[in-house]
Specification:
This protein is α/β, with parallel strands linked by helices. It is built from eleven helices and 14 strands. Strand 11, helix 8 and strand 12 form a beta-alpha-beta unit. The two termini are 33 Å apart. The N terminus is likely disordered. One of its GO terms (cellular component) is extracellular space.
Length: 398
Amino acid sequence: MKGKFATTLGVLSLCTALAMPVYAVGNDAKPATHHHDNNISGFIDYQELQKSLRQIESTSKGVVQVDVAGQSHEGLDIYTARVGTGEKVLLVQSEIHGNEKTGTVAILNLLKTLSGNSKQAREIREEVTLVFMPMMNPDASEADKRRNSLTWTEMLESFPQLEGAAKSWNYLDRGISQNYDYGANPGFDVNRDFNPDLNYVPEAQDFPGASDQPGWFITPEAQTSRDVYKSLQEEFGKVDVFVDLHHQGLYYVDGTADPVTLSLSAEFVPDPTTPAGSKYADYADNYNFDFSRQLNLLAYNELQSFGNSKFTNISLYSQDLDLPGTALGSYALNGSGTVLFEVRGQTQSLGQKEKGQLVKSVERGLSAIIEGVADDSVNQLNPEDYEDIPLTSYTPSF
C-alpha cells in the first residue's frame, strides 16, 4: 500500500544500485575462494565496507552519521550508519553470520538513496530515524564463515564467574559445518547470544542453555547490538522496528515447486499473553505481534506487486518458534516490531550466483517497510492477512 510517498524507495534504490554499485566487481587483494569452491570476491569485504561508509558519509554532507559502536573479538570496528531525524526508530542489522552477505550490499545501496536530495528521501528522513548495522560480525565475514572467532577459554577471561560451567550449546569446537573447520577454529553462533533481559549478567547456572532458552551476551558482537538497542531506547523511549537480514538454504513455496527467493517472519517467541508464552509474562505489555505482522506484510505485498517473477516466490519462515536467544526474539519482547529476512543460499552454496536478484529483493522489501512506517500506511494493513502468506516447504510439491 502506497502512502504520501508516491515514488517508492524500492524504485529509487534500484536505480541507485544500477547506476552506482557500492560493491566491487572484483578484488585481487583477497582470495577468490575460502573454504569452498564458490567465488565471493564480488561481495563486500571489511575494507570495502569501511571505504563505502566513508564515501557515503562524506557525500551526504552530514545527512548520514557513521559511528563505531563496538569491536569484534579480533578488534575490528562494528559500525552503525544513522540517517533521518524522525521520532519513529528502525534498527536494521546484517551479517551476524559472516557467510550471509547480501544484506550488507542492500544496506549500503539504501543509505545512498536515503541520503539523497529527492523529495521522497527528505520526507522519509523527517518521519523516521534509521540505524543500520551493516556488518555485525566482521571476523566471520572476513573468514566467510557463520560463527565468530571467540574461543571458550578467551570468553572466560571476560567472564571468570563462568569457570567450570558447561560450554554453551551454541559454541562449536569440533567437526566441519558449512565447509568450515570449527574443530581447528572454534567460535560462537552470535545469533543465539541474546537475552530479553537487556541487563542480564552471565551466570554459570544458565549454561549450557538450549535453542529455546535465552542467551547470555558473552560475545562482543551481541553485546554491541544490545548496546546500540539500549542507547536508542534511552534516546527515543523505544525501538519501533527491528529487522534482521539473513540467508537460508534451498526451500520451496509450500504447495509448489518454486524455490523460495525470500522467507519472512514476524514470530520468534510465543505471545506472552497466551499460556504458551506465560514464561514471558513480564514482557506482555511491550509485545506487539500484530504490528510485526503488519511490517512483514509491507515487504510481502511490495514484492508480490512485481507480478510473475522471482520476486513473488516469498514464503513464511517456520512459525510457532520460541527463540528468546535471538536478537529478533529478545527485541520483540522489548517492544519492537520485528521482521526476519532469509534470502536463498549462503556463500558456500551460492557464491555470487543470483546475488543481484537477492540484493534487489532485500532492498525492495526493506524500502517498503521504511516507507510504510514513515507514512503510517503500515497501520492500514490487516495483520490477519499475514496468515495467508504461504509457508516454506522443505521439499517441492509437484
